Amino acid sequence: MDLRIERLTEAHWPAVKRIFEEGIAGGDATFETAAPTWAAWDRGHLAGHRLVAVGDGAVVGWAALAPVSDRCAYAGVAEVSVYVAAAAAGQGVGRALLERLVADSEAAGIWTVQAGIFPENAASLALHRRCGFRTVGVRERLGKMDGRWRDVVLLERRSPVVD
Protein backbone atom coordinates (compact mmCIF):
# COMPACT_ATOMS: atom_id res chain seq x y z
CA MET A 1 0.00 0.00 0.00
CA ASP A 2 1.23 3.49 -0.89
CA LEU A 3 0.73 5.34 2.40
CA ARG A 4 0.74 9.11 2.97
CA ILE A 5 0.24 10.90 6.28
CA GLU A 6 -1.67 14.18 5.96
CA ARG A 7 -3.30 16.76 8.20
CA LEU A 8 -6.86 15.76 9.08
CA THR A 9 -9.38 18.34 7.88
CA GLU A 10 -13.14 18.59 7.91
CA ALA A 11 -13.15 17.20 4.37
CA HIS A 12 -11.80 13.90 5.78
CA TRP A 13 -14.55 13.68 8.41
CA PRO A 14 -16.91 11.25 6.60
CA ALA A 15 -14.10 8.68 6.25
CA VAL A 16 -12.74 9.37 9.74
CA LYS A 17 -16.23 8.94 11.19
CA ARG A 18 -16.68 5.60 9.38
CA ILE A 19 -13.40 4.30 10.79
CA PHE A 20 -14.38 5.54 14.26
CA GLU A 21 -17.73 3.76 13.91
CA GLU A 22 -15.89 0.52 12.99
CA GLY A 23 -13.94 0.86 16.24
CA ILE A 24 -17.12 1.48 18.22
CA ALA A 25 -18.79 -1.56 16.65
CA GLY A 26 -15.81 -3.76 17.56
CA GLY A 27 -16.45 -3.10 21.25
CA ASP A 28 -12.83 -2.80 22.40
CA ALA A 29 -11.76 0.63 21.16
CA THR A 30 -13.78 3.17 23.14
CA PHE A 31 -16.54 3.76 25.65
CA GLU A 32 -18.29 5.88 23.02
CA THR A 33 -21.50 4.39 21.63
CA ALA A 34 -21.81 6.69 18.61
CA ALA A 35 -19.48 8.92 16.63
CA PRO A 36 -19.89 12.62 17.37
CA THR A 37 -20.62 15.35 14.88
CA TRP A 38 -17.69 17.06 13.22
CA ALA A 39 -18.29 20.16 15.36
CA ALA A 40 -18.16 18.20 18.62
CA TRP A 41 -15.12 16.19 17.54
CA ASP A 42 -13.38 19.36 16.36
CA ARG A 43 -13.95 21.11 19.72
CA GLY A 44 -12.45 18.18 21.62
CA HIS A 45 -9.17 17.79 19.72
CA LEU A 46 -6.05 19.91 19.39
CA ALA A 47 -6.12 21.71 16.05
CA GLY A 48 -2.43 21.16 15.24
CA HIS A 49 -2.39 17.47 16.10
CA ARG A 50 -4.77 15.62 13.79
CA LEU A 51 -3.61 13.23 11.11
CA VAL A 52 -5.05 10.87 8.53
CA ALA A 53 -3.34 8.02 6.72
CA VAL A 54 -4.23 7.85 3.05
CA GLY A 55 -3.51 4.57 1.31
CA ASP A 56 -4.21 4.01 -2.35
CA GLY A 57 -6.37 7.13 -2.46
CA ALA A 58 -8.57 6.35 0.57
CA VAL A 59 -8.42 7.31 4.25
CA VAL A 60 -7.36 4.14 6.07
CA GLY A 61 -6.66 5.52 9.53
CA TRP A 62 -6.52 8.57 11.73
CA ALA A 63 -4.87 9.81 14.90
CA ALA A 64 -5.41 12.90 17.02
CA LEU A 65 -4.51 14.46 20.34
CA ALA A 66 -6.95 15.84 22.86
CA PRO A 67 -6.07 18.01 25.85
CA VAL A 68 -6.27 16.25 29.21
CA SER A 69 -6.98 19.46 31.12
CA ASP A 70 -7.34 23.18 30.58
CA ARG A 71 -5.12 23.88 33.62
CA CYS A 72 -1.83 25.50 32.57
CA ALA A 73 0.24 22.89 34.45
CA TYR A 74 -1.03 20.29 31.95
CA ALA A 75 -0.40 22.34 28.80
CA GLY A 76 2.15 19.79 27.62
CA VAL A 77 0.05 16.69 28.29
CA ALA A 78 -2.32 15.23 25.71
CA GLU A 79 -4.32 12.05 25.17
CA VAL A 80 -3.94 10.17 21.91
CA SER A 81 -6.53 8.33 19.83
CA VAL A 82 -5.46 6.08 16.94
CA TYR A 83 -7.94 4.26 14.70
CA VAL A 84 -7.22 2.07 11.66
CA ALA A 85 -9.78 0.80 9.19
CA ALA A 86 -10.33 -2.95 9.59
CA ALA A 87 -9.31 -3.52 5.97
CA ALA A 88 -5.92 -1.87 6.65
CA ALA A 89 -5.12 -3.56 9.97
CA GLY A 90 -1.65 -5.05 10.29
CA GLN A 91 -0.17 -2.97 7.46
CA GLY A 92 1.77 -0.41 9.53
CA VAL A 93 -0.88 2.31 9.35
CA GLY A 94 -1.22 2.75 13.11
CA ARG A 95 2.52 2.88 13.62
CA ALA A 96 3.03 5.45 10.87
CA LEU A 97 0.31 7.64 12.37
CA LEU A 98 1.47 7.32 15.97
CA GLU A 99 5.15 7.90 15.18
CA ARG A 100 4.34 11.04 13.19
CA LEU A 101 1.92 12.33 15.84
CA VAL A 102 4.50 11.83 18.58
CA ALA A 103 7.18 13.62 16.54
CA ASP A 104 4.82 16.51 15.79
CA SER A 105 3.77 16.73 19.44
CA GLU A 106 7.39 16.94 20.59
CA ALA A 107 8.10 19.68 18.04
CA ALA A 108 5.18 21.61 19.58
CA GLY A 109 6.49 21.19 23.16
CA ILE A 110 4.15 18.44 24.34
CA TRP A 111 6.07 16.45 26.93
CA THR A 112 3.65 13.63 27.73
CA VAL A 113 1.24 11.74 25.50
CA GLN A 114 -1.05 9.32 27.28
CA ALA A 115 -3.48 6.66 26.13
CA GLY A 116 -6.28 4.73 27.81
CA ILE A 117 -6.78 1.31 26.22
CA PHE A 118 -9.03 -1.61 27.07
CA PRO A 119 -6.86 -4.61 28.10
CA GLU A 120 -8.64 -6.73 25.47
CA ASN A 121 -7.29 -4.47 22.70
CA ALA A 122 -3.99 -6.31 22.36
CA ALA A 123 -3.11 -4.77 18.99
CA SER A 124 -3.42 -1.21 20.32
CA LEU A 125 -1.44 -2.03 23.45
CA ALA A 126 1.33 -3.56 21.33
CA LEU A 127 1.35 -0.57 18.96
CA HIS A 128 1.72 1.94 21.77
CA ARG A 129 4.46 -0.08 23.46
CA ARG A 130 6.37 -0.32 20.14
CA CYS A 131 6.17 3.47 19.95
CA GLY A 132 7.73 4.03 23.37
CA PHE A 133 4.70 4.08 25.66
CA ARG A 134 4.90 2.40 29.05
CA THR A 135 2.11 1.08 31.22
CA VAL A 136 1.45 3.34 34.17
CA GLY A 137 -1.30 1.21 35.65
CA VAL A 138 -4.75 -0.24 35.23
CA ARG A 139 -7.81 1.78 36.05
CA GLU A 140 -10.03 -1.03 37.31
CA ARG A 141 -13.75 -0.98 36.63
CA LEU A 142 -13.46 2.52 35.21
CA GLY A 143 -16.76 2.45 33.40
CA LYS A 144 -19.64 0.22 32.37
CA MET A 145 -20.21 -0.82 28.80
CA ASP A 146 -23.14 -2.96 27.75
CA GLY A 147 -23.85 -3.67 31.41
CA ARG A 148 -20.35 -4.85 32.33
CA TRP A 149 -17.48 -3.08 34.02
CA ARG A 150 -14.43 -2.38 31.86
CA ASP A 151 -10.85 -1.83 32.95
CA VAL A 152 -8.62 0.63 31.12
CA VAL A 153 -4.84 0.34 30.86
CA LEU A 154 -3.21 3.76 31.22
CA LEU A 155 -0.07 4.20 29.13
CA GLU A 156 2.17 7.21 28.68
CA ARG A 157 5.12 8.32 26.64
CA ARG A 158 7.29 10.96 28.26
CA SER A 159 9.28 12.81 25.65
CA PRO A 160 13.05 12.46 25.97
CA VAL A 161 13.56 15.76 24.09
CA VAL A 162 11.01 18.16 25.62
CA ASP A 163 12.12 19.71 28.90
Brief description of this entry?
The chain is of the alpha+beta class and 163 residues long. 28% of the residues lie in helices and 36% in strands.
As a whole number of angstroms, the C-alpha radius of gyration is: 15 Å
Q: What's the helical proportion of residues?
A: 25-40%
Mean pLDDT: 97
**H/E series, N to C?**
EHHEEEHEHEE
Query: Which spans of ≥5 residues are poorly predicted at pLDDT below 50?
Result: none
Count of strand segments: 7
State the separation between the terminal residues, measured CA to CA: 37 Å
Strand content: 35-45%
Largest sheet: 7 strands, mixed
Strand order of the largest sheet: 1-2-3-4-5-7-6
Which structural class should the secondary elements be placed in?
alpha+beta
The outline comes out as globular
Number of helices: 4
Structural overview:
Strand 2 and strand 3 form a beta hairpin. The protein is built from four helices and seven strands; from the N terminus they run E-H-H-E-E-E-H-E-H-E-E. The mean pLDDT is 97. With 163 residues, it is of the alpha+beta class. The longest helix is centred in the middle third of the chain and has 15 residues, at 93-107.
Keywords for this entry:
163 residues, alpha+beta, seven-stranded mixed β-sheet, 7 strands, 36% strand, globular
Outline the fold blueprint.
Layout: E1 3-7, H1 13-26, H2 38-44, E2 50-55, E3 58-67, E4 77-84, H3 93-107, E5 112-117, H4 122-130, E6 134-145, E7 148-158
Parallel strand pairs: 4-5
Antiparallel strand pairs: 1-2, 2-3, 3-4, 5-7, 6-7
